[in-house]
Amino acid sequence: MTMTFLGYRRDNGAVGVRNWVAVVSVMDNCNPVTRTIAQTVQGCIPVTTLFVRGQFGADRMFALETLAALGRNPNIAAVLVVGLEESSTDEVARRVRSTGKPVETIYMQPNGTINCIAEGSRKALRLSLAASRARREAFPVSELVVGVECGGSDTTSGLSCNPTIGRMADRLIAEGGTVIISETSEFIGADHLFAARAVDDTVKEAFVSAVRKMENMAIARGVNVSASQPAPDNKRGGLTTVEEKALGAMAKAGTTPLVGVLGYGEAPQKKGLHFMDAPAAAVENLTAMAAGGCQLTFFGTGVGNPIGSMVSPTVKVCGNRNTLVSMADNIDFDASGILERGERIADIGDALYGYAIEVASGTRLSSELLDIRETAVSRFAQSL
């Protein structure tokens, strides 16, 4: 039986699991206005950034394209772009308009902060009112694009929450859905095993090249990956080697073939399992996958990491009984039965798959309700 979820249809054919208006900053100096507008009007979320001013060339294009891609995410019904002046603001706005979504702009020059907040709040109000008229309808799970992430990993991560996410990923792909795994540096030490899952040599070489590039960058900066990983919180949780950490992180990808390799924030063009070449830091990686179109993200954590994506609702999955008590307010799904009661990974993973359908249909998550969410667009060059 084909599973369905209740989502929102967009004019370009995409399907969202949330129905937000995104208030998007074009530059860091617009962030206070952006946050104030989003706090003033219900149904709005702030999408902020750092820098952009002082960025040039490809680095600047990455920043503007990522901001626009977050606005293009299917979870976004409409976009209000907040900029310092007209030209840079419109560079982001025109990249979103191709989706057919309503897009409005406001400029801080020469209006000033108070006038800009007032005008922006009125525009956001109209956009949010219009978005509220949308109604959920049934869609097959093949419409879902899901990101898989981990952070605060420990010995329980690779044995419980990550393979649970992997089982969910396998189920979703079997139904025609799409899964993106990222965090390039997290594959170092076990990348040859993941490369062997590539559907052809082109995909394999693209994946291996991305990991080697990350390793070479670390070496060029004088970083010993084997010495710096696992991170201190990973070590406190019992992880001892970079290979052990990589094997646990890889478990989130399940068992299906790797069909594609994506650049930072790039949207997949086919169904199945994809790898995205992006930084491993949680907020940066969550931002990149949301820019790639992930409507949901599943985040495995052992010793605990509460942060969620601003645009892609983030399901926190944990199998550590201590963390489930100490960080109970931040965990959405309990996978501790695998280690505590001998329950099967397949059974817990199937339960997570069912929960994924619930969340896609509107069930809220702790990071949404507590607003423990953030955006960080990655930098690829220094400012001038």
- In the predicted model, the low-confidence regions spanning at least 5 consecutive residues are none
The side-by-side strand order for the widest beta sheet comes to 10-11-9-8-12-14-15
Mean pLDDT: 95
Number of domains: 2
Give the end-to-end Cα distance, rounded to a whole number of Å. Answer: 56 Å
Helix content: 40-55%
Number of separate strands: 16
General description of the model:
41% of the residues lie in helices and 18% in strands. The protein has 384 residues and is of the alpha/beta class. It has two domains: 20-131, Rossmann fold; 140-374. The protein has a seven-stranded parallel β-sheet with strand order 10-11-9-8-12-14-15, with helices on both faces. Strand 5, helix 3 (86-97) and strand 6 form a beta-alpha-beta unit. It is globular, with a radius of gyration of 20 Å. The termini are far apart. The model has no long low-confidence stretch (mean pLDDT 95).
